[in-house]
Amino acid sequence: MEKWIVQYQDICRLLIFIFFFLLLATIEKKYGIWRWADKRSVRWTTHLSLALISKVTIRLIFPFLAVTTAWIAQQKGIGYFNQNPTLWIIEVILSMVFLDLVMYTQHLMMHRIKAFWRVHRVHHMDRHLDVSTGIRFHPIEEMFTMGFKLLAVAFIGAPVIAVFLYEILLNVMTMFVHMNVYIQPRFDKVLRLFMITPNMHRIHHSDYLKETNSNYGFCLSIWDKLFGTYTYRSISGDNKIYIGLEEFRYPQFKTLPNMLLVPFNPRRLKVRHRKRVPSRMKS
Ligand SMILES: [Zn+2]
């Protein structure tokens, strides 16, 4: 089974990605609450191109990725669980929870370290959120994320299946939390007890620094609550959050070449609270 996963991980992940991307995009087309400022086809073309460049870059730089790292670590007896085996299911669950904590930490670092924030701005300067924002990451950020993930996988000695499942979960959740949907507060409150919701992550994309620097989680909501980075409600009201970065509001930053150049752009590196123009809701 594990050998099969290592061998066919790419095609499996690609097919699952396409399925969920189309499924979530169909849902948000029907239930999308904020008006799209740009055509979805244009956004998809730009974001999918950026994602493709990022994936090709990490493929060229890393000889193997997370799932294969887990396989090699297992063969060589590297990592905590490979040296201290316990019940298989416990290893799988704890590894996935650990990887989620690592991703929370990585995201926090992207915001708190100035050099990383330069790169992460490409994701945050999107002035609209939809499922395609979930794949909008600069190649340098993807490189950093992968490096961080490989170290974590080797450290914990995660089972191959745990890494494979977590990679899929992270990919799907990243698209889900950026969806152009608004979940009814009563239901959202229940979901937030254990997972990140689009309402919760939308606050993270606020232009208000205090809110941008909060709600870092992608899958489990516990980390933000545990480490004091949880914002329950936006001061603007959850329906009126100003999305994006004011300094990159100009149309030229919507092009792929300019997005790729953003990390080298000296524009103000700090996001400040300013007069906000909320996204327009569909009538
Ligand atoms: Zn962020």
Give an overview of the whole structure.
- The protein has 283 residues and is mainly alpha-helical.
- The protein has one domain (2-264).
- It contains 13 helices and no strands.
- Helix 3 (66-76) runs parallel beside helix 7, helix 3 (66-76) packs antiparallel against helix 8 and helix 5 packs across helix 8.
- The longest helix has 30 residues, at 2-31.
- It is globular and about 50 Å long.
- The N and C termini lie far apart (51 Å).
- It binds zinc ion.
- Residues 107, 110-111, 120, 124, 204 line the site of zinc ion (ZN).
List the helices and strands and how they pair.
Layout: H1 2-31, H2 40-61, H3 66-76, H4 80-83, H5 88-112, H6 114-124, H7 139-156, H8 160-177, H9 185-191, H10 198-204, H11 209-212, H12 222-226, H13 256-261
Helix pairs in contact: 1-8, 2-7, 3-7, 3-8, 5-6, 5-7, 5-8
The structure holds zinc ion.
Zinc ion binds next to α5 and α6.
What's a quick, concise take on this entry?
This protein is 59% helix and 0% strand. It is built from 13 helices and no strands.
